[in-house]
Amino acid sequence: MDFLQQIFWAPLTETYFQKALIGGCIVAVVAAVVGCLVVLRRMAFLGDALSHAMIAGVAGGYLVMKLLFGLEAHAPGMLLGSLLAAVLTVALIGFVSRISRVKEDTAIGIMYTGIFALGVVVVSVFRHFIHIDLMHFIMGDILGVADSDLWVSAFVAPLVLSLLILFYRHFQLSTFDPVMAASIGLPVLLIDYLLTTCVSLVVVSAVSMVGVILVVGLLITPAATAYLLCDRLDRMMLLAALFGVTSVVGGLYLCVWLDSAGGGAIMLFCTLQFLVVLTVAPRYGLLARWLRLRRLVPQQVVEDVLTTILRHGNGAPLTVLRQHVPQVASLPRALRQMTQDGLVQAAEDGYRLTEIGQREAAKVLRAHRLWETYLESIGTPQEDLHATAHQLEHLRAGGTVDYLDEKLGQPRLDPHGKKIPPRTKNGNDQG
Amino acid sequence: MTTEQTPAIEVRHLTVSYGERPALLDVSVTIEPDQLVGVIGPNGSGKSTLIKAILGFVRPDVGEVLIAGQNVDRAKGLVAYVPQRGAVDWDFPITVREVALMGRYQQVPWYRSLRKIDREAALEALDMVRMSDFADRQIGQLSGGQQQRVFLARALAQGADILLLDEPFAGVDAATERAILEVLERAKSAGKTLVVVHHDLTTAAEYFDKLILLKQRLYAYGPPRAVLQEELLSQVYEGRLRVFADLATGKGA
Predict the structure, then answer these.
(1) A208: Cβ contacts below 8 Å, ≥ 6 apart
(2) A257 near A7, Cβ under 8 Å?
(3) Contact B83 A177 (CB under 8 A)
């Protein structure tokens, strides 16, 4: 008990931890919710760009407030500066990709590194005026989060969240189907700008905690995690918010236990969380996918069973099937599936074909014998005929068999002198 | 114009260009209400530009588009658009019901939430295309024809009298094509005007009341029998259409 109290409760009594927890959760929730739209609009790279561009805005805002009003590290000034830098970056990206042959992703790459570089140069040139720790800016410091940062996020988060809730339908529709949004008269461009502004606000309030580099992760990773679990946008947003909170809580404990960097621990936890969900998600997870594939009975096995029974005559026991169907491992599953689909029936003397099964089997057999005839006509050695045709008989889509039939002059017997089943029309009547 | 009723869509001397090349050149078409109209023409013939113009998305160089007698800029919401299947993100977290509900968005001001009447209207539209049983499925889990029908339901829920469909029959099998066509016919008999971009000339005559044959210029507009003429088609498709010679002369219409 003492041990548990030591590792879970003790950090909670520390002020720095409380502040980190509160600030981190506020930012994570709003970032995750906005992040859902970012993920669905494939704007992840833009989030990255905005966070980098910020430094120029922060430096600019700092400088202007200091030189004009003599205010040191004026938070609202820097916030405004960051927003201006973000909007400017987006405008420049749009401008460059519109007027030149440079595509948007390249334009984003050029503009954000350029503006980031501008910020770095300004900060270092004016280092006597501006006291911005570049390392702090890049890595963030959630454990030393300042009260002013908390206030910024306490202001930004409700603002952005209420915008998103108020205009939920607008954001949803313009993300899902911008053409329809425009056709019913929604101001699509304005909505895009509003969303970009929201993303900038969130990024600005998150950078002081997790830093420029990791902020995009806080934006998209919880959203992507929720995306793997949800089929509705409102639920995805709720769940993403939850994942954002668990990332911050889990990450902060991780950071205390391991005595590591705060931002790094949070993103690491967040990423691990994503990987776990990616593995076990019920519908879109890797495990589910693997199980689905495993449960799938290969068409080839089904067809092999059909022709084996047809050749053997009705009442083929399992031993016969085992001899003629190469993939013995999936045989029981195939038989179960085929019984369910009404292709075969289990009787006392073995497996029998139903009427549908009979028809299907005849189709495969026809394909097999036509392929054999064809193979002989192109000079395949006699001893290879059966084996090769056995592979090829599964190739029947798109009128393949009819083509062979026509090309060979509608033969009645195959090279072994066996009758080729006639063509069935639409699979309905057996001619 | 001396028609007794206002045309649903009236395109007057429409010229639209991207750069030097006109996408549409002097196109004039008058579409009466309650018609199922097909738009045909080779790739890059300006079909989608025409659709965009009717939606009011392009600024014409010359000419104008009137929707029910009003300029298209003032007629937002009178025209419902059904996108091409390839243009939709089928992984989007949204259910069939929510897509149909989107049709109601234009009636609901931003400060009000959706009401019961909106939900009922959406469900009714889904009923009309026989998709209400799938209301809670995510859209990616549907077959091609079902997906197309969901978007039709959304257009119907919009309550617009004019529906624009971009290649609704692309990539679906024959049975599905029938099912979609049946929904279109029903929409028509409910008083809708449908303009459908179509690429399959062999079925065009059978499906539509009128055809618009387009390649930058308007080559023909009228009943299928009049439009599917061999010399017209060979002009527009530049001899790539030997197959359709018998279509025009033989079983056409």
Answers:
(1) A140, A141, A145, A146, A149, A152
(2) yes
(3) yes
Q: What are phi and psi of A418, to 5 degrees?
A: -95, 150
SS3 B31: strand
Q: By the 8 A CB rule, do A263 and A256 touch?
A: no
Are the CB atoms for A203 and A219 separated by under 8 Å? yes
Q: CB contact, 8 Å: B95 with chain A?
A: yes
Q: In which order are the strands placed within the sheet that holds B21-31?
A: B21-31, B9-18, B62-67, B70-71
| Closest approach of B159 to chain A, Cα-based (Å) | 12
Chain B CB contacts of A167 below 8 Å? 110
Query: Model confidence over B14-27: pLDDT tens digits?
Result: 999 887 888 899 99
Domains of chain A from N-terminus onward: 10-286 (1.10.3470.10), 299-407 (1.10.10.10)
- A40–B89 C-beta distance less than 8 A: yes
Instruction: Round to whole Å and give the CA distance between A124 and A413.
Output: 88
Contact A231 B76 (CB under 8 A): no
CB-based contact B8:B68 (threshold 8 Å): yes
Q: Please answer yes or no on whether A231 and B55 come within 8 Å at the CB atom.
A: no
pTM, two decimals, is 0.80
What's the rounded mean pLDDT across residues A212-221?
Answer: 89
Domain ranges in chain B?
89-159
CB contact under 8 A, B93 and A232: yes
Q: Which chain B residues contact residue A227 at CB under 8 A? A: 93
Which residues of A are less than 8 Å from B110 in CB distance? 166-167, 169-170
**Main-chain dihedrals φ then ψ at residue A78, nearest 5 degrees:** -70, -35
B176, B144 Cβ separation under 8 angstroms = yes
Give residue-wise pLDDT tens across range B178-214. 888 998 999 899 889 999 999 888 888 889 999 999 9
Please check whether residue B111 touches A, CB under 8 A: yes
Q: Measure in Å the smallest separation between the Cα of A180 and chain B Cα atoms.
A: 6
- Token reading at A260: 């590591």
- Residue written as tokens 């092999």? A304
Q: Is B77 on the interface with A (CB under 8 A)?
A: yes
Q: Do A179 and B81 touch (CB under 8 A)?
A: yes
Going from the C-alpha of A196 to that of each of A86, A160, A202, B29, B135, the distances in angstroms are 8, 11, 10, 41, 32
Q: Write out the DSSP string of A338-372.
A: HHHTTSEEEETTEEEE-HHHHHHHHHHHHHHHHHH
| Residue A233 or residue A77, greater confidence | A233
Contact A40 B92 (CB under 8 A): yes
